[in-house]
Specification:
about 240 residues, mainly beta, Lipocalin, ten-stranded antiparallel beta barrel, two-stranded antiparallel sheet, disordered N terminus
C-alpha cells in the first residue's frame, strides 16, 4: 500500500497553484476578489400610449447608462448583449495549448529540491476566452502522491491583467492571481502577496511563465523577501508531447 501524505504534511504547504507554488509562509493569504460581473447596455425607446395618443416618457437613465462603456482592451462583439469575442490578449494563450510532459522541482527552506514528473493538458474553451488546465502528477515518483489540479487562465480587460484561477486536491482553498505579459521577454509575470517576515514586512511570490519555443515553456516561482533577496520555490519544465 502506498502512503499518500495529507495536505497538512506538505512542506510549507507547498503545492502547485496554477502551476505555481502556493505556500503557507507564515503570513495572511490574499483575499479573493470576485470578478466584475457582466455589464450590458440598455436602450430605452419612447412608446405611444393607448388610443388617446398619450406619450409615455422613456425611463430615466443613470449617467453610466447614458454613456457607452469605454475600457482599454475591452472584448468586442457584433451584438453588445451577445457572446464576447476573444481579443489578441486572449489569443496569446494559444501558445500554451496542448499536452505537455512536466519535470518538477520543489524547494523547501534551502534543502535539496524534491523532484517529480506529471502531465498537463491545456485547452481553450468558451469561445477562446479561457485556457483550461488539467494537471496530474505521476504517482510513481511524485513527492505528494496522487496530486492533481485544475486551472483557468483568462484576460480581464476591466482589470487590464491576466487572471489565473486554480484548485487542487492538496487544499480546499480557491486561488486567484493576476499578472501581465512582457513582450520583450516573451513571458507572463505574476506577483502575489506571500505574507510577512518576522518584522511584519511584506513578502511576495513572483512567478514567470516563459515561452521558450513552440514545444517548450518554463515555469519558475521564487519568494522575494522584503530586502529584495529571493529563494527558489518551484521550477517546472514543460515539453510538448509528440502529436499534441
Amino acid at each position: 500500500m502506498r502512503f499518500v501524505p495529507a495536505a497538512r504534511e506538505l512542506p510549507d504547504a507547498l503545492r502547485l497553484s496554477g502551476l505555481q507554488v502556493s505556500a503557507e509562509l507564515g503570513g495572511r493569504s490574499s483575499r479573493y476578489t470576485p470578478p466584475v460581473g457582466r455589464i450590458s447596455r440598455l436602450a430605452a425607446h419612447p412608446a405611444n400610449g393607448a388610443a388617446g395618443g398619450t406619450h409615455v416618457a422613456p425611463e430615466k437613465k443613470t449617467p453610466s447608462q447614458q454613456r457607452p462603456l469605454e475600457v482599454s482592451g475591452a472584448m468586442s462583439s457584433p451584438n453588445p448583449n451577445g457572446p464576447r469575442v476573444a481579443t489578441p490578449a486572449h489569443r496569446r494563450l494559444t501558445a500554451l495549448t496542448g499536452t505537455f510532459a512536466a519535470q518538477v522541482r520543489i524547494w523547501h527552506r534551502g534543502e535539496e529540491p524534491m523532484v517529480g514528473t506529471g502531465v498537463i493538458t491545456n485547452t481553450l474553451e468558451l469561445g477562446g476566452l479561457f485556457l483550461r488546465q488539467i494537471y496530474r502528477a505521476d504517482p510513481s515518483d511524485s513527492p505528494f502522491g496522487d496530486f492533481e489540479g485544475r486551472g483557468y487562465w483568462g484576460w480581464n480587460p476591466l482589470q487590464e491583467s491576466y487572471e489565473l484561477f486554480w484548485i487542487d486536491n492538496a487544499s480546499p482553498a480557491m486561488q486567484l492571481q493576476r499578472g501581465n505579459w512582457e513582450e520583450e521577454e516573451r513571458q507572463w509575470v505574476f506577483r502575489s502577496p506571500a505574507g510577512a517576515d518576522s518584522e511584519g514586512r511584506p513578502r511576495y511570490r513572483i512567478t514567470q511563465v516563459i515561452l521558450q519555443d513552440s514545444g517548450h515553456y518554463l515555469h519558475k516561482t521564487v519568494l522575494r523577501e522584503s530586502d529584495g533577496s529571493e529563494r527558489p520555490l518551484l521550477e517546472i519544465r514543460f515539453r510538448r508531447k509528440a502529436g499534441r
